Amino acid sequence: MEQLLFNPVAFITALFLMQGPADTLRFNPAVLIASLYVFALAAFLGYQVISRVPPLLHTPLMSATNAISGISLIGSLVIAGSRYREHQVLAEVLGCLAVTSAMINVTGGFLITDRMLKMFRKKEAAKAEEKK
Amino acid sequence: MTDAQYFLEGTYLIASCLFVLGLKSLSHPDTARRGMILAAAGMAAAVFGTLFHPDIHSYLFIVIGLVVGSAIGIPMAMVPMTAMPQRTALSHAFGALAASMVGIAEYVIHGGAMGGIKMGALGLEVMLGSLTVTGSLIAAAKLQEVMRGTPIMFKGQQILNMGLFIAMIGSFTAWLMHPGVPVYFYTMAACAFLFGVLLVIPIGAADMPVVMSLLNSYAGLSSAATGFVLGNNVLIIAGTLDGFSGFILSILMCRAMNRSMTNVLFGGFGAPLTADTTVSGSMREVGLDDVAVQLAYANQVVFVPGYGMATAQAQHAVRELGNLLEERGVSVKYAIHPVAGRMPGHMNVLLAEANVPYSSLYEMEQINPELPSTDVAVVIGANDVVNPDARDNPKSLIAGMPIIEVDKAKSVVVLKRGKGKGFSGLENPLFFKPVTGMLYGDAKASLTNLTQAVQKV
Asked: Which of B9, B312, B347, B453 could anchor a disulfide with B443, C-beta 3.0 to 4.6 Å?
């Protein structure tokens, strides 16, 4: 046990080898590796893309990434709509809560980002808006 | 794979690409809006595709969730811009809530039968998600001033936090070893909820830009962990982008205060301090007409807004004064410090709302070289970000923090509500310098009066 906790390699190997009762649900190592690649590349891409966002747009950036991470909605949808052998009601209630909160971020996030970005005007456009 | 699954994966791929494009378009205000519409289209495609997921049998709870979510989300998009920080904090809470609910539901459905890696991701998802939910709610309460904004500290706080953290990690590890025992899982979730509260209460409202960014990052990472649990790439991509965005912002904010993350999180900045600065001299109060004449005959005027502008709702009054000056041929610029306000970019959004074109908004590094040739610098409700002690006094608590060097301008006018100290409780030597004139009163009223006075000049 102690050896597992202080040796990361042993810990990760142990995680890999842990047997769950239902084999189909276990993580397929190939899928895991692919997921890690996706994670690493997305992290790199995120760093590159986001460091180019000027401080001017940091508030819209925050609401935009918030809206985008509302993509957890797609996970929630499946949970709220599936049929299970047991715990049907609990899963549906949790799923419904998750759909609701993710949807709040999706609609609210994209709308307020657009509302904010609409306000960043060039000089001439700002003047024209003024005269209205 | 069936045709339906190919279709589903196709929509996810499209969504991932459009999200990246959308964020890339945020590198310039002219392209930003179109890019975000693309990202929204990507989201719509992914959600639409998921509705045809082969596992979905009943649409009742889906429809309820979508309708209730929109009914809450749309009004939340209509809040005034001054309420942006608390709105954003709330949306971090909702994002994290969704992730932790998915995590708990997955555990309820599959129990311990998921295999080690999935369980690890699931645990991380629920931990990060839960502590972000309560942490963000506390942050929102502080920003909305439902709760005291100053740090809340008590004896043994650090030890309690540490103990709670260890308990959380401990039950996580125990659960990984014995996945079939739900008690470990729920203890972990409960510890995380409590830890979120304790993490944010000792942090002052002035440090909120860092906390907001950090919570943004946690919410994103818990979404990414959801992606690992569900084996879904678009979730991993979107969550990672969100997580990294928050992470980069929090680093930028810390740098703009010259403080480390640990110092922000555990330092309890803004608590009553044994101040170290001794200031000599007295503050010089100036009259309205005096300032109006200075402004009217200046070549260049720089406005430096701070959180005080937001609380006084003075952004429109600033713009009116700025426009009037521009009509008289004065060059008007707005200098924005990275941590001015309560969240990253807060001041930019407020001024943009008031129709200030973005070409007039200057970053700290751009404006500092111009300040020596500026005739009048007008400080509106900002304090620490213009405190020359940060530069001159190595003993100051904010020593080393980059500032907007208004004291180098030929003349400085500070709009301030009263003679009290700033948010951090630090004395600001700027107010005692001979170039500085103080104009007391509500910022909005002062600016409106100034506009009238300039018209008469």
From this structure: B312
CB contact under 8 A, A39 and B51: no
**Angstroms from B31 CA to nearest CA on chain A:** 10
Confidence category of residue B277, pLDDT binned at 50, 70, 90: low
Domain ranges of chain B: 79-266, 288-456
Q: Which of B21, B26, B223, B233 to mutate to test the interface with A (most CBs of A within 10 A)?
A: B26
Instruction: Give me the DSSP letters along B240-302.
Output: HHHHHHHHHHHHHHHHHHT--HHHHHHS-TTS---------S---B--HHHHHHHHHT-SEEE
Checking DSSP bridges between strand B300-305 and strand B376-380, what pairing results, if any?
Answer: parallel
Cα–Cα distances (Å) from B27 to A57, A58, B67, B146, in that order, read 8, 10, 33, 35
**Would you say B249 and B344 are in contact if contact means Cβ atoms under 8 Å apart?**
yes
Instruction: Chain B: give the shortest CA distance to residue A49, in Å.
Output: 6
> d(Cα B448, Cα B442) in Å, to the nearest integer?
10
- Is the ipTM, as predicted for this complex, more than 0.85? yes
Task: Determine the Cα–Cα distance for residues B233 and B387; give it in Å rounded to an integer.
Answer: 47
B384 is an active site residue: yes
Are B106 and A79 a contacting pair, CB within 8 Å? yes
> How far away is chain A from the Cα of B393, in angstroms, using its nearest Cα?
28
Asked if pLDDT for residue A18 goes beyond 50, the answer is no
Residues of A in contact with B237 (CB under 8 A): 38, 42
- Where do the domains of chain A lie? 1-52, 55-132
Closest partner residue to B68 (CB to CB) among A53, A78, A100 is: A100
- Above 70 in pLDDT, residue A2? no
Give the whole-angstrom CA distance, residue B25 versus residue B32: 5
- Please tell me what DSSP assigns to residue B163: H
Q: What is the Cα–Cα distance from B348 to B352, expressed in whole angstroms? A: 6
Fold classification of B288-456 (topology level) = Rossmann fold (3.40.50)
| pLDDT tens for each residue of B67-116 | 999 999 999 999 998 899 999 999 999 999 999 999 999 998 887 777 77
The 10 Å CB-count burial string (b at 16+, else e) for B233-250 is bbbbbbbbbbbbbbbbbb
Q: What is the CA radius of gyration of chain A?
A: 22
Lookup: tokens for B150: 């100053």
Note which residues in 52-81 of chain A have CB less than 8 A from chain B.
52-81
Least Cα distance to B127 among B262, B218, B228 occurs for B218
Cβ contact, residue pair A107, B77, below 8 Å: yes
Q: Does A21 touch chain B (CB under 8 A)?
A: yes
pTM: 0.88
The 3-state DSSP class for residue B362 equals: strand
Q: What is the pLDDT of residue B422?
A: 56
Residue A37 with chain B: CB contacts under 8 Å: none
In a mutational test of the B interface, the residue from A27, A69, A132 whose CB has the highest number of chain B CBs within 10 Å is: A69
Cβ–Cβ under 8 Å, residues B276 and B397: yes
Provide the shortest C-alpha distance from residue A118 to chain B (in Å): 7
